[in-house]
Amino acid sequence: MAEQTLTLTLITTPSSSSPNPSQLPRKKSRKHSSSASAHTSTVTTATATEAKYSAQLVKTLSCDGEVDFAIEQLKRSDPKLVPIIEATRPTAGTTIYNRFVSLCGGEARVCPIAVLALTPPQLVQIGISARKASFLHDLANKYRTGILSDSKIVTMEDKALVSLITMVKGFGAMSVHMFMIFTLHRPDVLPFNDVNVRKGVQILDGLDQLPRPSHMEALCKRWRPYRSVASWYMWRLVEAKAGGGLPKQFQPAGGFTFRRRLC
Questions:
Q1: Mean pLDDT, residues 183-208
Q2: DSSP type of residue 251
Q3: Could you tell me which of 91, 95, 93 has the C-alpha nearest to residue 259?
């Protein structure tokens, strides 16, 4: 249910400038045989014809093996990403969200009425700030009144979806991008305003200055149609550098392995 996953996005996205989520949607690998060749030709066609980048050509990231396939495509289209990909191992946790689900009485009971019945003190007690508690209530209200619905969210194109969900208190464009990547599993979302995605591009490309949001589309064109996955690696690159790891021009050869857990 989209309401539940919007709730998860709201709860697990910090209030700081970048959420740095630590897990990509991942299922078991598919075999890259003749079907992989067909998929590669599809991606090549999409690259050649800008207007044809769409969900019809590229599967969602929750499809079996699609993240692994996207990673292989990114390695080929941008060799600078290879050592970062090899050094990074995703892990994650959603402790606060699990407490929230328990407070509602289980996943099946997460619905507008149940959320609106929870008081701010109850939500604060499980680790949700008073501010985010008000955001959760606003989200539940918009579902209750029909402004938001699962069917609208699943079928909307990206720009319209950003406009709709940013009507909810606490959801900026960055939060919606997180939702599109990590819940809707859309493969080609570029969080162009996100400072750490921009910093990652700056480090990766050896730029003197932080690229402007307006320049990100052109700089990241090479990652299409898998900019969602490449963006995840930009978060990892920036976080690794901040922790004293990676660079030295992106290391590996058996050295640094970066892990991050989101609690």
A1: 94
A2: -
A3: 91
Q: Which domains does the chain have, with CATH numbers?
A: 2-21+93-182 (1.10.340.30), 52-91+189-257 (1.10.1670.40)
Token pair 């989101």 is found at 262
User: Please, are residues 67 and 187 in contact by the beta-carbon 8 Å criterion?
Assistant: no
Average pLDDT, the chain: 78
Kindly state the tokens that stand for 82. Answer: 């290879």
Residue 93: predicted pLDDT: 44
Cα 55 from chain centroid (whole Å): 16
> Mean pLDDT across the stretch 8-32?
53
**What token pair was written down for 109?**
């009971």
218: Cβ contacts below 8 Å, ≥ 6 apart: none
Give the pLDDT confidence score for residue 247 in this predicted structure: 57
Among 207, 177, 209, smallest CA distance to 192 is for 177
Contact 120, 134 (CB under 8 A): yes
21's tokens: 């989520």
> Model-level pTM?
0.69
